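note to self: dont lose this again. the chain is below, predicted strucutre after it. 97 aa total, dont forget to put it in the shared folder this time
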Amino acid sequence: MKQLEKNFTKYGYEFNQVARTANAAIYSQSDNGKIIAYETIEILHKSEAVVFGNTLPDREAYPSSEAWGSKGWTMPNLESAYRRINEIQATLDTRIK
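---
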């Protein structure tokens, strides 16, 4: 399975993975090298699919904009981002049992 990128650029911002568990991650969001927020996400798992004639392998995925608030959150500081990642992991651990 292809894992999420640790660093990427999207919407003109730079994102860098700060922390990761099996099912969640924290990324810093930077603008011109200055961290402006943190994004805490539930890592999504996508099955192999054909998109526009290209086969995409099994892969991890970042939540879409439409899933923001239920699978992804923008946090103002690292402390709140870590609180959220712990909540995500606890919720997922409860669902698995």
